[in-house]
Structures are given as structure tokens and as C-alpha cells.
Amino acid sequence: MTTREFQPDTFTIAGRAYRSRLLVGTGKYRDFAETRAAIEASNAEIITVAIRRVNIGQNPNEPNLLEVLPPSKFTILPNTAGCYNAGEAVRTLRLARELLDGHALVKLEVLSDDATLFPNMPETIIAAKELVADGFQVMVYCSDDPIQAKMLEEIGCVAVMPLASLIGSGMGILNPWNLQIIIDRARVPVLVDAGIGTASDAAIAMELGCDGVLMNTAIAKASNPVLMASAMKKAVEAGREAFLAGRMPKKIYQAAPSSPAGGLIGTK
Fold it and tell me: Residue 107 catalytic?
């Protein structure tokens, strides 16, 4: 009898393969030391940076995040958190490209309002078209509407990132059916972005067939961010393995014994 060991698989974004399917943000931590410790515990290779909120060189007299999380070790994913229209988002990512020496891989998010931080899809689509035309490789935060997710793919975005629930809510995946439709139809990576609260949420996203999960608040605002980062790493890996393994069918009102039914003691 031989034992087959699971070999971790990679996923590809914009032509580059990554081992870790967990992407993490860099905001909301107590300090850069905690940020670094949590990200190392998560084993993430791609880290997001809110250009309008975190210094990566635009403010020379302030601590620079890139000194703690160097681009030589991590793929820096600048994002447009805090932008509420297409113009702001495009300008922000052009600034990021200058600061990062021509870096093209970016995360686009255009928000509707401060209360919900729900994606403003009309402005998102406008910004996506302009950024793709300008040579950016756009990963895009979007609603869980399968039609609009497909539109963004057809525009040329390299990944679509539907929300599980509102940013920072920790409510988990509220509409797995819409996510499943997006996953089934997409030809680019699909990553759940926003709303993850704990490790089981991340595992469910991966079991659905998502290519990855992006999170920030779920780790940064945990009582122990470093320990939660480690838990999220394991949850993403477990969910991916379960997806690849293929779960047993659900059988409503039908039990099936786990041990053989024949040859029982006292039977003929």
C-alpha cells in the first residue's frame, strides 16, 4: 500500500506563479513590527498597500513600509482604498507605479460610501478600462454580481475579487451561490475580497473553488493577529485541499454506514 502525499499547487496572476493563496493587507496593525510578524506567520507572498494611507516613499520624512516589507521578498500590491471615483483611483495607481519603479500589478477598488464601503461598480468599470489601456495589470474588487464580474474580465482585468460581505464586517460569505456562478464562469483567478472574519470563512471560500482569499481586518483586529495569521494560512491550505479532494455528495434523509454492512456478528 502506498501513500500519496498532497503536493501544494500554485496559482498564476499576470503570468507569475505563487505558492500561497492567501493575500493580506498591511493596514490596521499597532505598528510595523506587528505587521511584519503577522505577514510572516501568514506565509503570504502578495501584500496589499493602501497608497492613500500608507507611506511607501511618497512621504520621505515618515517611516516607510517597504523598509519592513521589502519588494525583494514580497509582491507589493498597491490599492486604491479611500477612492470614491474613477479619476481618483487612476491617479493613485499612476503615483504607485512611479513610486515602485514601473510596477504594473495593482488592486483597483472604487467605493460607494463611507458607511458600507460597497464597490461603486459604474466607476470601477470606467477606471478598469482606463488602467488596462494604460498597461496596468488590474486585480479588481467588485460586487458579487456574476454579470459585472464577467464584464471586468472581458475588459482585461487579470483577476476579479468579489466581496464575501462588507469590508471589515467579519460577516463571512453571505452569498455562496453568486460566488459559485462567478467561479464557474471565470477564465481568470477569482479571489474573495472583504468580509472574512475567521478561519472557517477562508476555508469555505477555498472549498467553493476560489483561487485565493484576500484579507486584512480579520487578522489585524484579532486579539492575537500573529496567531490568527497562522490560522488563516492553514485554513486556506485546508480549504484548497478539500476542494481538490472533492467532497462526498450530500444525501438528504439518507444515512450510509461508514463501516461495511455485511459480515456483522450475529448475522448469517
Answer: yes
Considering only the C-alpha atoms of the chain, give the largest distance between any 2 of them, rounded to a whole number of Å: 85
Report whether 75 contacts 49 (CB < 8 A): no
Active-site residue among 107, 129, 150, 251?
107
pLDDT in tens, 107-166: 999 999 988 999 999 999 999 999 999 999 999 999 999 999 999 999 999 999 999 999
Check if the beta carbon of residue 155 is closer than 8 Å to that of residue 130. Answer: no
Q: Which amino acid is at 203?
A: A
Nearby residues of 189 by Cβ (< 8 Å), 6 or more positions away: 11, 12, 13, 158, 159, 160, 211, 212
d(CA 178, CA 39): 30
CA distance 81 to 93: 11
User: What is the residue-wise DSSP string for 180-232?
Assistant: HHHHHH-SS-BEEES---SHHHHHHHHHHT-SEEEESHHHHTSSSHHHHHHHH
In angstroms, the Cα distances linking 37 to 21, 49, 170 are 18, 16, 22
Quote the pTM value: 0.87
Q: Cell 511618497 belongs to which residue?
A: 58
Distance CA(154)–CA(109), nearest Å, equals 17
Q: Which amino acid is at 12?
A: T
